[in-house]
C-alpha cells in the first residue's frame, strides 16, 4: 500500500472514530494537542489500524508516534515488513 493510500485510510479512521473535521487531519497534526485525542482514543485507533492492515501492532511500535504523519509512517513500515 502506497504511503498516500495509508494516509487516506488513517484520516478516514480518525474522522469516523472521533468525529473530527477531515480538514483538521493533516500529516503535521499532533494527535494529542491538535486533534485532542487521549490514550483511550489511541487504543481505539490502534485497533482500527490492526483491522485495516491485518497485522498485530505492538505498543512499542507506537510509543514515538506524535503526529498523523508518524502514524502513517508506522503503518507504512508495518506493511513493508510483511
Question: Your description of this structure?
Answer:
With 82 residues, the chain is mostly helical. It has a single domain (3-80), classed as Non-ribosomal Peptide Synthetase Peptidyl Carrier Protein, Chain A (Orthogonal Bundle). It is 54% helix and 0% strand. The protein contains three helices and no strands. The protein has helices at residues 3-18, 39-53, 68-80. Helix 1 packs across helix 3. The longest helix has 16 residues, at 3-18. The radius of gyration is 11 Å and the shape is globular. The N and C termini lie close together (11 Å).
Short description:
Its main location: cytoplasm. The chain is 54% helix and 0% strand.
What brief labels describe this structure?
54% helix, fatty acid metabolism, 82 residues, globular, Non-ribosomal Peptide Synthetase Peptidyl Carrier Protein, Chain A
Task: Classify the secondary structure makeup into a structural class.
Answer: mainly alpha
Instruction: Please tell me the total number of domains.
Output: 1
Number of E-type strands: 0
Any idea what the shape is? globular
Determine the N-to-C terminus distance: 11 Å
State mean pLDDT (0 to 100 scale). 91
| C-alpha Rg (nearest Å) | 11 Å
Compressed to H and E, one letter per element, the order equals HHH
Strand percent estimate? under 5%
Amino acid at each position: 500500500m502506497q504511503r498516500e493510500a495509508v494516509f487516506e485510510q488513517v484520516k478516514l479512521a480518525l474522522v469516523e472514530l472521533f468525529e473530527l473535521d477531515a480538514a483538521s487531519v493533516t500529516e503535521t497534526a499532533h494527535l494529542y494537542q491538535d486533534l485532542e485525542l487521549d490514550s483511550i482514543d489511541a487504543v481505539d485507533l490502534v485497533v482500527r489500524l490492526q483491522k485495516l492492515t491485518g497485522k498485530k501492532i505492538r505498543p512499542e511500535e507506537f510509543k514515538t508516534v506524535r503526529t498523523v504523519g508518524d502514524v502513517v509512517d508506522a503503518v507504512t513500515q508495518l506493511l513493508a515488513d510483511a
